[in-house]
Design goal:
Blueprint (H helix, E strand, L loop, with lengths): L1 H13 L17 H4 L11 E9 L7 E12 L4 E12 L4 E15 L4 E16 L7 H4 L20 E15 L3 E8 L19 E8 L1 E2 L12 E12 L2 E12 L2 E10 L2 E12 L3 E10 L10 E9 L18
Antiparallel strand pairs: 1-2, 1-15, 2-3, 3-4, 4-5, 5-6, 6-7, 7-8, 8-10, 9-10, 10-11, 11-12, 12-13, 13-14, 14-15
Amino acid sequence: MRIKICLFIGMLFITGSAFAQDVSFSQYYGNPLYLNPALAGSKICPRLTLNYRNQWPSIPATYVDYSASYDQFIDAISGGIGLIVVNENQAAGTLNSTSVGAMYSFRVNLTKKLTMSAGLQGAYIQSKLDWDKFVFGDQLVGGDLLGQLPPTAETPPDRVNLGMIDFSSGILFGYNERLYGGIAAHHMNQPDNSFYSNGDSKLDMKITVHAGALIDIRHGLQSGDVEDLSISPNIMYQQQGEFHQLNAGLYLNFYPFVLGGWFRHNFENPDAVIALIGFMQPKFKLGYSYDYTVSQLTNNTGGAHEISFTWQFDCGQKTFKQKAIKCPRF
């Protein structure tokens, strides 16, 4: 299995045109700054968020992703600021990518009930390729698979460390603290991500559209404490290059617990059924989700495990003109 994976990844790079695709977190509201830079400062008080995703753990060369972010609202600049770090480890370290981004989200009340936030993000992406971990077809001819393999005739890339400047933006609308929706555009400048200086590869722009509602079971869309007992239907659409994905599902909130279920569909084929359980307290929340693969890969891949953790700080004695946007917690 290891050899097959390395052969597959190797074919992508020797063409000089590897089409990258961003990691897709199942708990997308549990990683708000990754979803949409316009969500920076959406909870007003300072917030620290940590995320972990292990995709296809039954495959030896798996995909492991980490994310850490911090954001808060600042009255003096009428908006939120945020910092986010994302690390993607692919094929047991064969390809490792780290992104560090900073963002600002301007917020304005359009009416008494309608709020808009517009966010901008600048990031630096560092990608590293471990060429020595690749196994190519010419190494398997006459080689000892249990010992040392002969050298390959494939030409290594002229750069195994790649740095890119990246820009993203987003917009978010909230109505009556119950309805919300947004659009985000990541990699707007489509930076060059080829490890060959004469390669022709761009990091495709990613478009995300997300929307949903918080419905108090006792009061509907009217006022009420949605933390106690509520449902939250949600939908998200993403497009990056030739990749298209639709994610639809529902949260059930009954404090201090949250249950969630979604179906993620890649337009070429069904992808996964996702189940979530979360635990909330005033200061923190912890969520676990599992992706059950329903595509042609089957769940022999091991699906995907994901954990999110958020610590919500106090605002102290400060008072703000803006209210927190009540998007889902996970």
